[in-house]
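Appendix B. One record, verbatim.
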Amino acid sequence: MKKQFIVALAMLVSTLTFSQKSELKTAEKAIKSGNFADAKSAINSAESLIANADDKLKAKYYFLKGQALYANGTGSNSDIDKAIESFDMVQEVEGSSKGKYGSTIKDLKSQMLNNFLTKANAALQSKDYPTSSSGFEKAYRMSPKDTLYLYYAASTAVTGQDYNTSLKYYEELRDLKFTGIGTEYNAVNKESGEVETFSNKSLRDLSVRAGTHTAPKENKTESKSAEIVKNIALIHLSNGDNEKAIEAMKLAREQNPDDLGLLISEANVQLKMGNKDRFKELMEEATVKDPDNAELQYNLGVIAAEAGEKEAAMKYYEKAIALDPSYADAYNNMAVLILADEGAIVEEMNSLGNSSADNKRYDELRAKRTEIFESAIPYLETTLKLKPKDIQAVQTLMNIYRGSGQTDKYKEMKAKLETLEAGN
């Protein structure tokens, strides 16, 4: 009886092994013919039997399963994720990447990686940000050493306003201590004439060889640590988690006390929260660290102007202009400050009567108004010189010339305004 049981068990094992091999053979044939639906069906039939198979059969099972799910790149996102897991299982079963299927899997993974990156870049160009983010994230999972792909996944998720997904990726990057310092691969798009950045050299060179891009260049990138922490904080802020936002910035600044980028990022977060006094403190701290930064001076001018501190704002704008004579917005804001009192003067002029005292006061106010105009004109003219299509500057100059009786210049600005509006 005992012998019969052993014989029956042996027959059962033999039958199971035969069934496994039969299903895997069916799957293999289906894959070769491109019939991935039948391949998946055969793989599913073998799945319940594979637990007791030997390592050789298990390796073949996971290898075929990965191929069936990947389906030469046509598989669903979920299936492709499972395909990657299956290929990893092959290497786990074989004990290394140098087993029977190691070389083939390496080639397949390389193909999958390029496929992810190609689709992610194409989606980015067509502004399909969710698809682009998903593609870059898959590329990173496929090649974890290339953390830049995860950064691209986070950035495109932000652009697509999927803040929860981007937060998850940014926090992962922060925990990895990712800086993003490396090489950026650029080329000019022939059709648009714009410079485009590629995720790697191979894709850039491929586009150049294909003739769609020209003038390939490589640049060293700056650290993205400050940007990552700032975005983490801003996402927390948009979710109403102000404490988490401040904590994210505080932790980053403690770890990098001399990082000017983080200091400015915290200032911007404080401004987003409406903490203008703290923003101003941080910006003043930043100017001490970087006294030749025109943008910092300009931002302090904006805050001072909003607080009604006109003289302080003008000093900041003047310093910004001294540091960067091409800073158009600083010139424009100087003009705005100078012209701020013009409305009250006109209002008082319109309220006066016809008495001799009123006429005298009217002449005084008109002279004061002319003085304001003359002070503002150079700043506006410089703004327009630096930004020739600035409609607001044209409109303001046109009104000033009309109000000060400069007819020829008024007509010139009127014609320019009409040209600009027609162009829009």
